[in-house]
Amino acid sequence: MRDLAVESAGSSRRRTVVGLVVTALGGAALLNGLFGKSGNKPASVGFGATVIFFGVAVLGPVFARPASRLLGAPLPACAASPAPSPARMRCATPSAPPPPRPR
User: Fold this and answer.
1) What are the CA-CA distances from residue 37 to residues 25, 41, 43, 44, 49 (Å)?
2) Cα–Cα distance between 47 and 70 in angstroms, integer?
3) Are 38 and 28 in contact (CB under 8 A)?
4) Threshold 0.85, pTM exceeds
5) Buried b vs exposed e over 10-35: b needs ≥16 C-beta within 10 Å?
6) In the chain, where the domains are located
């Protein structure tokens, strides 16, 4: 299942360049709508925000792996205790039915 979930094009240079260009164009349109002398400012701000959204969506896979490694780095130190046995987990889980009694 892991092999199917891995996307090989996650951090390609093309994706990074396209994402940065789209985000920069959206930022320029947003700033033009906020501070420029364009005629229809709300439309320019909305267009810029939408384009920034698409740029960040394109850049998402590029930053996902480094961000998850950074956020997950301290987790192995927290999981130093051994895992509980499955028998104790069955009894501790309220939604699990009780184990059958031997006769």
Assistant:
1) 17, 8, 13, 11, 18
2) 33
3) no
4) no
5) eeeeebeeebeebbebbeebbebbee
6) 11-69
Question: What residue type is 80 in one-letter code?
Answer: A
DSSP assignment string, the chain? -HHHH--TTTT-HHHHHHHHHHHHHHHHHHHHHHHS--S-HHHHHHHHHHHHHHHHHHHHHHHHHHHHHHHHTTHHHHT-SPPPPHHHHHHH-TTSPPPPPP-
Q: Which pLDDT tens digit goes with each residue over 37-77? A: 878 899 999 999 999 999 999 999 988 888 988 988 877 76
Distance between CA atoms of residues 61 and 59, nearest Å: 6
